[in-house]
Structure formats: structure tokens, C-alpha cells
Amino acid sequence: MNSNLSDLLKRTDRVMSGSNGWHADPNLSSASGSYLGSVHVGVDLGTAYTVLIVLDENFQPIAGDYEFAQVVRDGLVVDFVGAVDLLRRMKSKVESKLGFQLTSAATAYPPGVAQVEVRATANVLNGADLDCSSLIDEPSAANNVLQIKDGAIVDVGGGTTGIAVFKDGKAVYTADEPTGGTHFSLVIAGSTGLSFEEAEALKKDPKEQARLFPVIRPVMEKVATIINRHVEGYRVDKLYLVGGTCSFPGMDEVIQEMTGIETFLPGNPLFVTPLGIAMNN
Predict the structure, then answer these.
(1) CATH classification code of 143-269
(2) Fewest C-beta in 10 Å: which of 1, 36, 90, 165?
(3) Which residues pair with 170 in a beta bridge?
(4) Structure confidence at residue 26 (pLDDT)
């Protein structure tokens, strides 16, 4: 696994929060402080969050933005105009930080989606004045960062759980099924009488998460059931969790308990796949 993963994710957290951008290298910055090196750009159109991230020529994060937006459902673009408008807005914000325009980006898709949906994802980038330089499946993007040889990557996003089994660094099996963070929010809304939006906000409140854990544990167990079904027949000794949903406290413990497989959770799982997408640009 990537020995620099912890440092990379910590830096990504700082960059995405706006508290720390790229470090000015005299050879890669202008007199005004603008970055002059080459960049790698990735766009992750998720069910819950859309993420745009920019890496420098050494594949270190230097700028980015992310927003909650339901323009994609279960890996399918359901609001094309909304997705384009959102990405245009995010692109403009990141460009103002960098001091130059972004012209191309890579993006990704869940395993198993139809080619027409893959093209729709690329067309969102084109609509936002970003040439789609490459398309990669989400688990392979995540492994650009994790660099695992053997095991399974489990990407639990807003709407789906994607699974990829790796042997000798190559994906030998991929699958994707509905169930993710959106289902957490639906269960919370149903048990509390709150609206979906209110339940979504409550889910993210660290002060409420211990109280909500018993409510959403059955959804976590369903994710574990999905994992068990798809890794059956393969020798999988370790699971690597990515995707924003996995950041809910206790998620990794439930997965390990229900699957019986050692489970690893990186620092901020939300940004693993977007980083890997950008590395493909």
C-alpha cells in the first residue's frame, strides 16, 4: 500500500478546506505567486458530493473544491444542466485560487454502468469547458492512490457500493450495487420524522453520530452483505474502504465484524477516489 498515503490525505484535507494551498516553489511560481507548472485535474461526480481537485506536476494537491449536490443518482447523471452549472461554478472558484484557467480533466464512473452513462459523465465536463482527457472506473482510480497489490477496494458513496477485487495490482472483478450514504439519510428521516435534507445535516453532525449509529447500523450491515456476496470465491484478506459514507464513525468496525475480513479505513475516504481520478489526467 502507498507508504505516503497518510501525508497525502492530510495535505488534501488542508487544501480542500482552503486553509493551505500549494507551496511556492521559486521554479514553479511567477512573481505574483501564480503556479506555473503542469497540473493534473480530476472531477468526481458523486451521488452526494461533486469534487474537483487539482494536483501539481508531482501529483500533490494544490487546489480544489467540493459541494453537496444531487445531480447524479446511482452513478447516473439525472440533472445534466444542474451538473454542468455546478461544475462551471466550482471550476471558476478553483481557477481564481490558481490564477489560470483549467482546460481538461479526467473523470470516473462506477463499474458496470452502461456506456451511454459513461459518455454522459464525460459530456458534463465538456459542457463545463473542460476537455474530458480520460475516463477510469472508480475502484481503479482509488487504487492509483492506495496502490494495493491484493485485496478488495470498497467504495461506498452516496448512492452505491462499488467493489473491486485486486490480484497482483490488477482488478480481476468489479461490481456496483445500490446502497450508500443516501440510504443512511433516508433511514434517519424515517425514524425521526425529519425531512431528507434535515436528516442529511443531522448525519454529518459529530455530536449526533453516536446517537444515530444504532439507527443506521442495519444499512452498514447491508453494505457488508453486499461485500460478502461479491468477494465470495476470491481470496480477500483485506478490505480498503473509500467514499465519504465510510467516514461515519464505526462503519469500518461493522464491516470487519460482518465480513470477518481485516478492514482498513484511510484518513479521509471522501478524497481517495478524486485524487486517483486526477492522477489519471
Answers:
(1) 3.30.420.40
(2) 36
(3) 167
(4) 56
Task: Write out the three cell numbers for 75.
Answer: 452513478
Q: Domain spanning 5-137+271-278: which CATH class is it, in words?
A: alpha beta
CA distances from 129 to 103, 124, 254 (A): 7, 9, 42
Please give the full DSSP string across 171-187, using - where no structure is assigned.
Answer: EEEEEEEE-SHHHHHHH
- What is the per-residue pLDDT for 37? 77
- Beta strand pairing status for 238-242 and 262-264? parallel
At 213, list the grid cell. 449509529
5-137+271-278 and 143-269 share one fold: yes
DSSP 54: E
Q: Is the Cβ–Cβ distance between 125 and 132 less than 8 Å?
A: yes
3-class state of residue 265 by DSSP: coil
Look at residues 63, 70, 142 and name the one whose alpha carbon lies nearest to residue 109.
Answer: 142
Residue ranges, the chain, pLDDT below 50: 24
Q: Are 54 and 37 in contact (CB under 8 A)?
A: no
pLDDT of residue 138: 87
How far is the C-alpha of 210 from the C-alpha of 170, rounded, in Å?
A: 38
Query: Domain boundaries in the chain?
Result: 5-137+271-278, 143-269
Which pLDDT value is given to residue 118?
85
CA 12, 123, 110, 71 dihedral sign is positive
